[in-house]
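Appendix B.2, paired examples.
Example (i):
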Amino acid sequence: MSSEGEGRFHMVDVSLITSGSRRVMLRTDDGVRIEAVYERSTASVTDTAVVVAHGFTGSADRPAVRRAARAFAERGAAVVTFSFRGHGGSGGRSTVGDREVLDLSAAVRWARELGHARVATVGFSMGGSVVLRHAALDRESAGRADAVAAVSAPARWYYRGTAPMRRLHWVVTRPAGRLVGRYGLRTRIDRRAWDPVPLSPVEAVPLIAPTPLLIVHGDRDPYFPLDHPRMLAGAGEAELWVERGMGHAENAANGELLTRLGDWLTRA
């Protein structure tokens, strides 16, 4: 797996779903086809588009992702959701946060092509690590983000300090685990190890300023304990929200948090 590089936006196979929604296939710089959905705001008060990056084993059509998209649209933003490579209807195989930066860049570029001058990104878990690395690596092009929120993101790679993360490493690194990923979790995982190891989330944070950055984490996250968000927030200029009683990622984000996130993303 290679890690860096700037995604060039291509769009193919456009189809309208409703008068305010589009589903398309985007093509990333490395040639992977990525499914994406655009939805206009139900209460448009800004020119912001929010691009939502889901967690590992998620997709643009998962209920928790759709719920987040609705909440952000209600706060006045247009919303782009997409499925990372190896997930949902997208092509390719998951590199678990490495080349997914190119997927996010393609989605951000599409939002700008649709006329949005301001594009904010929000990522959950693996998607959180991706939005941080994307903000650090793609700072000058049309694929850049104007505000970034990372929810339940890891600070460092190869963390195995919790039982859920040990299970995830088994899924990613073992042939039997990748079969479980493909058929049980509907996620196609690349069998190759990272080479080189990509920039870690905590290494990315100092490179993001002056772009506004928000770190959100639950105090009951079973995957990553609170040293991860504290490490991220302490590495650069970032606002930190520690959410009482919250578990992990988009599945644990309640309506009140999503509303606050939507307000921050549209106004930061």
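Example (ii):
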Amino acid sequence: MLLKKTFLVLAALLMTDFVLAKENPMKKLSMNVELNSGYEMRRTQERASRVFDKQKLADTIQLNSGFNMPILGLGTWTLTGGTCENAVYAALKSGYRLIDTAKYYGNESEVGNAIRRAIKDGICKREEIFVTTKLVPWSNSPDKDIDDSLQKLGLSYIDLVLLHQHGSASGDDAVYKAMIRGVKDGKIRSIGISNFYTEKTVSHFINDFEIPPAVIQNENHLKYQNNSLRDWASKKGIYIESYYPFGGRGNTKEHLQNPAVLEIARAHGKSAAQIIVRWHLQAGYIAIPGSSNPAHIAENFDVWDFELTENEIKKLSSLDTKRRYENW
């Protein structure tokens, strides 16, 4: 009789846990993680969601705007039409929650289509996705550009809007002021700048406007790390986001076939691309590698189950030649 009662109690407890698990499929465990660069990031561990069969890790940082941003996303520069839509959909299905686009890319509608497909298919919810777009500095109507991006993306708000690059001083200021108005109107959550590489040029946006940049998106890779700007910006509460994490089209071979990268890849049983992505994250950057290949997209995101050692970080950081590939 005692054995039977014990069995019934255990069965009841197991059933309770099962019901709670069903009611909370996205249970989260959080902890602060100190990275090699000294940055502290917020790590969120998501358990057995309706999408994933195994545990996935998604790291985010808290921006100076108060909103959280994933540190790994998909870049969509040069992706157009169905290729772009399918790439973004594949990224969301693989676990990405950061998608980067721009008005200049001409693919905001395709990005929006992919997001709606993913939401409809139960892959994610809107509030889980962080969408970035950018405004050109030569626009005569940046306020209308914001509304146009919202319409093309099919969103009620954009998570991050960046001034795409330096134009004229008056043009830059006009766009930045429009982005601030967008924040106040609830159309934009966070703002930032792109292709600004020095303390002097960035300081203008910190000192002369009521809302400072939350993110600076620049060309950053093993050959051009710009550590001085990263370290200075971090003290101002600003994060650096790396586009071209593999060096950009036409330069990836130099990075993916680097002997130091390949040696570290063999040590971890990972690909060269995964080692480079992991270096960006541990060095304190946000990274947005671009690809239209679903297999490569998934591979670039599969970097949460290992960490580079301090010596490996130093070895990769020593590859810096201060060489940029672009001039914008």
